[in-house]
Each structure stands twice: as structure tokens, then as C-alpha cells.
Amino acid sequence: MKIESIEVYRVAMPVIYPFRTAYGDGHVIESVLVKMCSQGLEGWGEATPWDSPLYSPEWAGGVFSLVRDWLAPQLLGQEISSGDVLQDRLAFFKGNPFAKASLDLAWWDLEAKIKEMPLWRMLGGQEDTVEVGADFGVMETIPQLVETIQEAVDAGFPRVKLKFRPGWDLEMVRSVRQAFPDLVFHVDCNSGYHLEEAEIFLALDELNLAMIEQPLRHDDLLDHAQLQTRIKTPICLDESITSLERACQAIDIGACHWINLKPGRVGGITVACQILQEAERREISCWVGGMLESAIGSYHCIALATLPNMKYPADIFPSKRFYKKDLGFPEIELSGTAQVKALPFPGIGCVPDKRQLENLVVESHFLS
Ligand code: MG
Questions:
Q1: What residues are labeled active site?
Q2: Rounded Cα distance, 251 and 217, in Å
Q3: 220, 215, 264: which is closest to 240 by C-alpha?
Q4: What's the gap in Å between 289 CA and the centre of ligand 1?
Q5: pLDDT of residue 17
Q6: What is the DSSP letter of 150?
Q7: 133-162 per-position pLDDT tens digit
Q8: What Å distances lie between residue 236 and 54, 114, 347, 361, CA to CA?
Q9: Separation of CA 123 and ligand 1 centre (Å)
Q10: Cα 237 to ligand 1 centroid, rounded to whole Å
Q11: Averaged over 121-134, what is the pLDDT?
């Protein structure tokens, strides 16, 4: 397809209540949307790096500028025949996977619309239904957390993920395990610890967790590999996996048994699919994570989550969990107790609600 125009939007989406992690408390989720046009059709992509460089070195304001000034001009007017061609055109610029992902996702939505296929089917998804888990941030008290987990268990969620940060750590996990002896759950440390604090993870070994997500530095592989030799609970890497090469290196040195795959963090659907294939070849399993995207980004995540070798319920939430009104339409809804469904329409099947986009946009730019 020849890329005829690209529009980029930075949006600020207020959440119903703050999501509390090792990075702090987020009240507004900043995201970057890309609309890519060809042959009278439009594709939508979204990258959600948040408003400040806390999760990774990227942030929405920077992603917006980079897409506008450097990345989108590389694609405009060009014949882009595949995700690989798109990635090659952008590879000249170092790093910045979220910025690259916003364009890569838009290209995939557009390509699937041109081919008149649902994206999940075009990627090779087997079933339209994706199993999701329940996630809980830091709460005021442990009894409040236990009560909330009980609701998730009663609702039939197959697994629970808990944020874990200094002050909300071992005692919290011990209490949860005591209350729920058979619960499948894991903790996400959001890179809040150092190798010198390995004792805390040795103690977690007693508590039969499904995995420990990103315990150490956001860009580390070596210390994670060392930690994994000392603990038996599998390590899952999230922040550290930013490209296919990093994923292969992490697996080769034994830094992880699991990869939390987020299309934004690795540069797009193209790279996420490459990582998934490579992980499968090396007998490492993946599951799909999320960044509290709008329904646009979430439907991309759902498409990815329909692929084989996704072995753990995804972090994909119904729109109502965090947003009064989602920026994308249709909104994400739970199907049954703990499932979401990919849509049967061409592409991701979801577009921005025009009025909601107007309400939430901070800045936008049109290139043609
Ligand atoms: Mg994580």
C-alpha cells in the first residue's frame, strides 16, 4: 500500500481511580494515536507510554514529537508492503519502540482493512476469545486487597496479578497466600528492586507464585539471569524486553522463563509476532500485557493474544474498569466471566469515538 496521509494525536485520558504501582499513582493516562490512510481506508494505531518517562525512557509528548518530526515522514508517500518493510524504514532511528509501534499498529489495522479481514485472523489467531486475568494495584490495607481478590475469585478469574513495591511486599503476599492457598497469582515489581535485595525473592519461593514479573532494573538482563539461578520461581520480563534481539539475549542467558509481550514496548505487532515465534522455538512462553490503552490499543492486544503460545491469561481490561467512557468504539467488554472477544470486522474493528477524541486531544498534527 502507498501511505497517503498520517495523522498523529496525543491524548490525555482521565482514569476513574489512580492505578498505583512501583512507579507511583497515575491519574491520567497519556497515549498517542495514529491514523494512517491509503486507498480510501484508514487504520488506527495506539502507543501508551504514559505522560512521563517512568515505565520506560519514552513518554507521550516525546513519542508525539518523534512520530510527527522523524518517523511519519519516513513512511509518507512510500509503498509499504509489509510490517518488516515498515520496521526497516524506521530502523535508521535508534530505539523508541513506543513511537515506532504507534505507526506499526496503524499499518496492521489498515492492511487488514484493505484485505477485508479481522486483524486477529490475519495474524493467525485460532479463536476470537481471549482469557484475561484480574490485576490489583497497591491498596490502602491488606484486608481490603483480600476482599477484592475474593470478588475476582468468585467472578471466575483464572489468575490474579498483584503490584509489589517496597512497603507492599512480603507481608502482603503471605497474607494473600494464607487466605487463598490454591490461587494462581503472581507479583509485578515494575523494576523496583536490586540484586542485593535477592532475599525478598528467596522468601517468595516459599509462596508458590506463578512468576515474578520484572523484579530488577528496567533495562537489565544480566542481574535477572543471576537472580534466576538463585530462585526457583520463574522470572517474567516485561520492561527489559524492548526488541527481538533483547528477547533472544534474555532467553539465551536464562534471564526469564516468561515474557510479558506488549506491542508498544517492543515496537509494534510486527516485532511482537517475531518475539513470539522465537520464544516458542526456544520453549519460552509469552502472555499479553497492557498499558491501560484505550479500546484502540486494547483491540490490537486482543488480536495478539489470540495467537498460539500465549500461555497465561492476558492483562486486558474492560473499558469500564478504568474509563468512564472509552476513547475507542466499541468499548471492551467482558464476555462471560473472564474473557474478551476479538471483533469479527476488518482490521481491529474499533475506531475512536469522534467526540471523545475531540474532548481528550492535547495536540494533533496532519501529514500528507
Ligand atoms: Mg509489568
A1: 163, 262
A2: 17
A3: 220
A4: 7
A5: 82
A6: H
A7: 999 988 999 999 999 999 999 999 999 999
A8: 19, 36, 30, 34
A9: 24
A10: 8
A11: 96
Give, for 20, the enclosing helix (H) or strand (E).
Answer: strand 5-21
CATH superfamily of the domain spanning 121-351: Enolase-like C-terminal domain (3.20.20.120)
CA-CA distance, 59 to 41, in Å (whole number)? 29
Q: Do domains 5-116+352-367 and 121-351 have the same CATH topology?
A: no
Whole-model pTM? Answer: 0.96
The gap from C-alpha 308 to its chain's centroid, in whole angstroms, comes to: 17
User: Pairing between strand 134-136 and 160-163?
Assistant: parallel
What the block records as the C-alpha cell of 307 is: 495467537
Distance 192 CA to ligand 1 centre (A): 11
| Degrees to nearest 5, angle at CA 356 with 351 and 361 | 100
Sign (positive or negative) of CA dihedral 87, 89, 90, 93? positive
How crowded is residue 11: how many other Cβ atoms within 10 Å of its Cβ? 25
Q: Where are the domains of the chain?
A: 5-116+352-367, 121-351
Cα–Cα distance between 353 and 160 in angstroms, integer? 31
Please write the tens of the pLDDT for every residue from 233-272.
Answer: 999 999 999 999 999 999 999 999 999 999 999 999 999 9
Distance in Å, CA 79 to ligand 1 centroid? 36
Question: In this structure, are residues 221 and 238 in contact, taking their beta carbons and an 8 Å threshold?
Answer: no
Question: How many other CB atoms are there within 10 angstroms of residue 153's CB atom?
Answer: 17
Q: How is domain 5-116+352-367 classified at the architecture level of CATH?
A: 2-Layer Sandwich (3.30)
